[in-house]
Amino acid sequence: MLRERRLYRASAVAALHALSDRKVNYGPLTGNRVPTWDSGWHVDSLCRLLAHEPAGDPVRGGPWEIACRLVRDYQFAEPAILRALYRTDSALLGRDMLLEGRFAGLRFDMGVRVTSVIDETHGSGEAASRVWGWAYRTLQGHLEQGELTYKVVKHLRTGAVEFRISGYSRRAPMANPVVRAGFAVFGRGTQLRFYRASARRLRRLLHAELHGAPPLTAEILPGYDNIALAPTPRPHLPPAPDGDAAG
To answer: How far apart are CA 246 and CA 25, in angstroms?
Structure first.
């Protein structure tokens, strides 16, 4: 029980505040350089259909808006793999987040910073899509180096709403040989499992709200007015309808 509640401790809040002094833990990708498998980066992408709503601009209170809120508040994350502390009184852009990663029965605190927010329309005519999302980069002390982007996309012609994850990453230097060996064995598989599990969770949360479940709200740590722990557990989530499933 104590291990499950370690993010409730004052030490975790202090670690979150300390992230403001940390820098991104890898050098900038300058010029036309992009991360590639050949240059030692894992380059990932995932796209999952969430739901459909009427064609045209996003519907107020519809799937796109609900999904955007869940992604903004980090409610979509699979809690068995990642949880996060963040300040609710800070803007999304520039927000520091203390992630607790779980693999091989261990817990690791890792800092990230939101470095971009996307809020735009892509394309035109029948190819137009409404896109909202954000990206974070890893900070000093993180087990990995890289950037991860989460987007909610609505295709305006069809009304299809999708969740997209994209990113690049590689292992950061690790002094501890036990951690290094454990991450080499379990880290990559856990990372890929997180992408798939989070997309499933987002879809189930979305459909639960569409069928009348109350919206998830951030869990505020006892004794702190502005520190949220996410994602908020929601037990017994029903499966999302098969009709909107995507591969």
So the answer is: 35
The two structure tokens encoding residue 58: 């996003």
Q: What residues does 144 pair with on adjacent strands?
A: 171
In three-state secondary structure terms, 125 is: helix
Question: 245 to each of 51, 207, 242, how far by Cα in Å?
Answer: 8, 12, 5
- The two tokens of residue 199 are 């997309």
Question: Dihedral angle at the C-alpha atoms of 87, 88, 92, 93, nearest 10 degrees?
Answer: -40
Distance in angstroms (rounded) separating the CA atoms of residues 54 and 58? 8
The edge-to-edge listing of strands for the beta sheet with 144-155 is 42-52, 160-171, 144-155, 129-138, 106-122, 96-103, 82-87, 227-230, 219-220
d(CA 149, CA 227): 23
pLDDT tens track, the chain, 247 positions? 334 567 888 899 999 999 999 999 998 765 556 677 667 788 999 999 999 999 999 999 999 999 999 999 999 999 999 999 999 998 999 999 999 987 766 788 899 999 999 999 999 988 999 999 999 999 999 989 999 999 999 999 999 999 999 999 998 876 666 565 556 555 678 889 999 999 999 999 999 999 999 998 889 998 998 999 999 876 666 677 765 443 3
94-118 burial, b at 16+ Cβ within 10 Å, e below that, comes to ebbbbbbbbbeeeebbbbbbbeeee
Q: Say if residues 130 and 108 touch (Cβ distance below 8 Å).
A: no
